[in-house]
Here is the input.
Amino acid sequence: MFSQPYIVDIHTHMYPPTYISLLRSRTTLPMVRTFPSAPKEPRLLLLESELPSLERALSSPAANTSGEPLPGRPLTKHYTDPEAKLAFMRQHGITTSVVSLANPWLDFLEDGEEAGKVAEEVNREMEEMCSKAAASQQNREGPDPLFFLAALPTTAPLEAILSLIPKLSQYAHCRGIILSTSGLGPSHSGLDDPAMLPIFHALAAAQLPIFLHPHYGLPDSVLGQNTQSKYGHVLPLAIGFPVETSIALVRMYLAGVFDTVPGLRVIIAHAGGVVPFLAGRVESCVVHDELLTKKFDNQERRTLWQVLREQVYLDAVVYSEVGLKAAVEAVGGVERVMFGTDHPFFPPVDEKYREGMEWESVRLNREAVRKTFGEGSEEERLVLGGNAVRILGLGSNTTR
Ligand code: 5CU
Ligand code: ZN
Here is the structure.
């Protein structure tokens, strides 16, 4: 394949123009809005946990006297502008990014027909962005600068979703899809809903892996009421997000999704959440559970460990060697783990550091890889880029 070491970021987001117009037109989550105290700085509001601080900001609109930050996060050009993505990549030595639409994707669109149309536009805009970036760097060696993971209109009728999947392979730069934990329709039936199986079969047939990403976190009954005013985004993002993904993965496992669709490949965000640490406990609970032992009675059950090693990949977005080592162990080796940044989330808090300096969030992940595998080692090369090139087929820039 490629002899030089390439750094590939497989966990990196954008909101293409169609999506941003949609968010600007909305008055409920997710939305883009400005506040009287900062009329020139649009903010991106995404999470349920941001609603109490939105209410407070709206009830005293003139000034933000409490010292509490405005709700959400600043909608910087990093979310929307491909040039900003490419500049961020250059600044951090990232040679290729596999960009995905950020949360909450199209989950909130109750009108399935609209969701279908937005998905087509978003995916078309993603391909256009990747193709333009490739054309502007024609003479470079190695994989193109940008690839993408497509969005699925999960509230659209099943037939519409199924007809979209084979078309994704016609995009030269599409290498999989990004999916939330919610499942089909507005009811959040989850990924263990048997209605998801035709989609999983179609993705396996098209050889498109799923990038499973959180958005819904944990309820306030677990995280605490209105913790944002005391603890900011820490609890929903650091704990709620990875636990959500972990539950979704274990539900898929318990429902037998991986046995029913052996060709399915899933990349779990944030290094698999708590699964690497808790897979042993899941296994123990399965063998001690009357219902499940009966369910698996006459079958050769693959353990969760086996499924992790055969059908699951993890990103390396875990910010520490402790978590990274557990991730590698859980999937049975360094070959199934891929570097990521979660850009443009987690920018430096001080705006003046946002341009031109290394982002702390990237430094922590990069350093965890270096310390875990050793600078210049083959393992480091694989995690930083070699695995992504192999697993996602980035060596070829043509339609698959
Ligand atoms: O900061 C955040 O809320 C997020 C988010 O919404 N999505 C993500 O991938 N990371 C952080
Ligand atoms: Zn992310």
Observations:
- The chain is about 45% helix and 15% strand.
- The chain has a mean pLDDT of 93.
- The longest helix spans residues 112-136.
